[in-house]
Amino acid sequence: MLQMINILFSPIALITLGFYLFQSHTLDEKFWNGAEKLNYYVLFPSLLFSSLASANMHMGHLDSILMVIFAMMVIIIVSTYVFAKLNKSPDAHFGVYIQSLIRFNTYIGLSIATTLSNPEIKSILVNILAIAIPFVNVVSILSLTPKNQLNIKNIAISLIKNPLINSCILGIAFNLLQIPIWTGFQSLLQAFSNSSLMLGLLCVGTAIQFKGVQAYFKTAFIISLARLCIIPIMTFIVLQFFELSYTAVVAIMIFFSIPTASAAYILTKLLNGDYQLMAAVISLQTILSVFTLAIMLMLVQTYYS
Fold it and tell me: Do residues 227 and 100 touch, judged by C-beta distance below 8 A?
């Protein structure tokens, strides 16, 4: 238990601090808007690029790891579609359901992986993120766009302009082609990377809105329960059919146990989804994940000890 506290203390403390600074108006809204843009366009892409450029792309069982990731993604998406159809959910809700269940808060995931003693866990998680980020972005946009408004050209342009996808592609290219990175530039990337997780977690705290949670509590709680409990347990069961290392299992479990991305709110509002419900889900998932992440990590640790 003490080990779980040590692992989760840093991200929880930064999220709590971000929430306090935002709610107390110690820093105004313009600062947080600027901080999110800085992280999205500069700091976090630097973290992804530097991590992928130096990651082990030839690790064992990478194909099995990706098979588990995409098998779970397909199960989640199909199940959500069937659920929405059977319950005749409004179109504005479907995109919220999908994003709530397949998007992931990379800041929380990477901060936990970084805290763990085994660096291979972070390396595996970065590889997962490199593949998942483009896929999840496409699915999220499609889930929020009405059929009669689908425009493949616009979706392609938005993906090409996405700094996270571009940084992943560049990082993988540098890695596979074994292109060396100048030491001075590497030091700059390291400084950006270190700042990214800290600033990202502070910004996660600003997304917590208790009023929204109260208004949409029942729906948000059901979605959060599915995301933080049911999906990780299903993933753990699926993992038993694959012969993966302990580090791979931990990385995959972190990936499917972290809450949805705060940026889901912006995309939902932009594409006319139910952004108030999305805000409630983001808030509740972030709060509950403090407890569910610890439980899931302890489950894995106990099972493999």
Answer: yes
| Architecture of the 2-304 domain | Up-down Bundle (1.20)
Cα distances (Å, whole numbers) of residue 136 to 99, 104, 130, 139, 160:
8, 9, 11, 5, 14
Residue stretches of the chain with pLDDT short of 70: 1-2, 59-60, 148-149
| Residue in this structure with the two tokens 């302990």, named with its chain if needed | 246
**Nearest CA among 225, 255, 221, 231 for reference residue 75:** 231
For residue 5 the two structure tokens come to 């506290």
The pLDDT, as a whole number, for residue 60 is 66
- Cα dist. 222→97, 100, 172, 207, 284 in Å? 10, 11, 37, 19, 10
Cβ atoms of 49 and 190 within 8 Å: the answer is no
- Distance between CA atoms of 103 and 141, rounded to whole angstroms? 12
Q: What is the pLDDT of residues 266-300, one digit of tens each?
A: 889 888 889 999 999 999 999 999 899 999 999 99
- Per-domain boundaries in the chain: 2-304
Best CA proximity match to 47, nearest among 138, 137, 167: 167
Gap between the Cα atoms of 268 and 273, Å rounded:
5
Residue 36 burial (CB count, 10 A): 19
The Cα angle at residue 247 between residues 53 and 258, in degrees rounded to 5: 80
pLDDT of residue 146: 76
